[in-house]
Amino acid sequence: MTGSLNMVGYGLAAIGPGVGIGLIFAAYISGVARQPESRAMLQSIAILGFALAEALAIIGIGLAFALK
Amino acid sequence: MSILLAAEGDGFVSPGPSDFVYPGILGSFVTKPILIIVLGTLAVGVFYYLAARRAAVVPDKMQFAGESLYGFVRNDIALDAIGHEGMKFVPYLATLFSFIAVLNLSGIIPFLQFPATSSIAIPLFLAVVSWVIFLYQGIKRQGFVKYFKDMMFPPGIPWPVYILLAPIEFFSTVIVRPLTLTLRLTFNMFAGHLVLLLFILGGEYLLVHYGGIVGIAAGSVSLLGSIVLTFFEGFVQILQAYVFTLLSALYIGGALADEH
Lengths: 68, 260
What we know:
Helix content of chain B: over 70%
Distance between the termini of chain A: 18 Å
Number of strands of chain A: 0
Helix content of chain A: over 70%
Oligomer: heterodimer
Distance between the termini of chain B: 53 Å
Strand content of chain B: under 5%
Number of helices of chain A: 3
Number of domains of chain B: 1
Order of helices and strands of chain B: HHHHHHHH
Order of helices and strands of chain A: HHH
Strand content of chain A: under 5%
Radius of gyration of chain A: 16 Å
Structural class of chain B: mainly alpha
Shape of chain A: elongated
Shape of chain B: globular
């Protein structure tokens, strides 16, 4: 079996942002469930938080391909 | 797992970064991504031209489509993130959103099927444009010294913390912001295209070359999965165009706000 250990490392590194994104949307869903009229305001905040947490996973995949 | 190992042993070449390098079509400069950029630019231009050509009180279909898109950027991005001053940035943000969305969606349009934004040059250039705009607006509004002083030395903090905080704030605003804008868009498109390639090429390999009942079953699942993933990619591509535009608007809004 051949391949690069980088990919295993990336898989491990993706756990963190995965948990983070899960927490962000859990908070968003419970917020909307409690107060449905705040949906529009919460949505852009949730997507912003999602984008910031996701940047970590994206930097990870970039480095997994770039570092030898 | 055993299927995967056997397939690798028999010569299935998994897709990688080399699948993103295209040979030149006309000379070495005109490649497939370049053609997609030209087509995408034309598509955006023609779309907005047709939408604005016969502006009327009762809109026709094209005007309605154009106004919906423009109104979405104006109300949900510019006015939300910047405030009432956001009106003068709506043309830039709407252009940014439609351009990125079209270049992203070229990844799932049949026959094109390559997201041009997965070449780092395009997101990098767009991020640098946004970077120049928000720094310029901040310096113009608050003055060079005050803008950087407010950025690096937020009030209400004991002074020893500034030794640590000032470089971090400077680094995160001036260097990390354009970098993450670029990398987020590039590698989302890169990874999405890679996953689609893996499902489609792997399904083809299992069906045609691996064969047998296992190969046909696994290959069919893989190809059906690729259809679902294509729709998911479309969603991600629109979402990433929205995120890029929203973050650009937030950075401009932050530069225009007086207090930090």
